[in-house]
Amino acid sequence: MLHIIGVPSCDKIRKTKKWMESKNIDFEFINVKKTPLTLDEIKDLEFKVGLDVLVNTKGTTYRNLGLKDKNLSDEEMLEALHENQSMIKRPVLVFENSVLVGYDEEAFETFLKANELMETK
């Protein structure tokens, strides 16, 4: 099952869900406000895509925490991400061992086709 991770109030999450529905793609939405990811789940995502991809450095949470100037270690950044999951760049698509981060319809198609979740034409 394809998982979409994020917060329901996010415009990119709403657009992603609408796009998936328009393509008849089954997915499960994981609302990190109601069901936060574990530290191990965040570390697994970080291992697969890297912190530079996973952390939304342009978001208000990142800015409000003043993390830009703190020069955190990767471990400290993972802890901050675990405590402030709205800092995770959205959407995060997860299917088995494949992960895609960010809203990009062409990347969605490539990701879904590569994982045989969407027919190729």
Report on the structure:
- With 121 residues, the protein is of the alpha+beta class.
- It has a single domain, classed as Glutaredoxin (3-Layer(aba) Sandwich), CATH 3.40.30.10.
- Helices cover 43% and strands 15% of the residues.
- The protein has six helices and four strands; from the N terminus they run βαβααααββα.
- The chain has helices at residues 11-22, 39-49, 51-54, 60-64, 74-83, 105-114; strands at 2-6, 27-31, 92-95, 98-101.
- β1, α1 and β2 (27-31) form a beta-alpha-beta unit.
- α2 (39-49) packs across α5.
- The chain is elongated, with a radius of gyration of 14 Å.
- The two termini are 22 Å apart.
- The model has no long low-confidence stretch (mean pLDDT 95).
Biggest beta-sheet profile: 4 strands, mixed
What is the level 1 CATH name?
Answer: Alpha Beta
Portion of residues in helices?
40-55%
CATH-level-2 architecture: 3-Layer(aba) Sandwich
Number of helices: 6
CATH superfamily: Glutaredoxin
CATH topology: the name is Glutaredoxin
